[in-house]
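re the bet — no i am not wrong, look at it urself. input seq straight from the record:
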Amino acid sequence: MTSADEAKRAAAHAALSELPAEGVVGLGSGSTSRLFVEELAPLVKAGRKLAGVPTSESTRALAASLGIPMLDDVGPWSIDVNVDGADEVSARLHLIKGGGAAHAREKIVNYAARRNVIIVDGSKLSTRLGEKWPVPVEVLVFAHGATRDHLSLHGRPTLRVRQGAPVKTDAGNLIYDLSIDPLDDPRALDEALHGIPGVVETGLFVGRADVVLVADGAGVRRLEKPP
């Protein structure tokens, strides 16, 4: 296990202390969130009354295999705490998410939760969003070339491809990764992108982290949303 893997595991374990005695937990997607699901399973097996709302089919399959009860995909839900990872976290705790192509579902669960806990290793921290990661944008397959042209007014869009084929989300949509200059106002870009026909959701999570748990060689730090 690499030091980065160990840091992710430490952050995932630390998130257990943010959970209620019983209730509903949002289950994020991605490598760090997968570790959290693995850490959560022993609590449930020991009798902790927690159910999950998964943000992707892969997370649902993992949680089911570990015996974690889950609510359906229909909603609405009353989610006590949502635990998820992030690709980049700014100094003001704004986020870029979507490396796992699940950010539309992740944002729905994020907004349905009373508290959002983000777990990352120290490499994900930056001063401004865009310093380390492009903004993933989920778009409809229909006319995605036209959507790409509109996205190009705001950055440099690249269709996400894996093993020679476009990456599809669980909803069957495509992902364009929008390379940008570091953002002074991520909310303005988020609003502009949402105004483009064909855009389903962006990976910009502005003001949506209540707590960020950051693990590195010195341990786990707890950062809280600034006023």
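see?? The chain has a mean pLDDT of 96. told u. also The CA atoms of residues 61 and 114 lie 25 Å apart. so pay up
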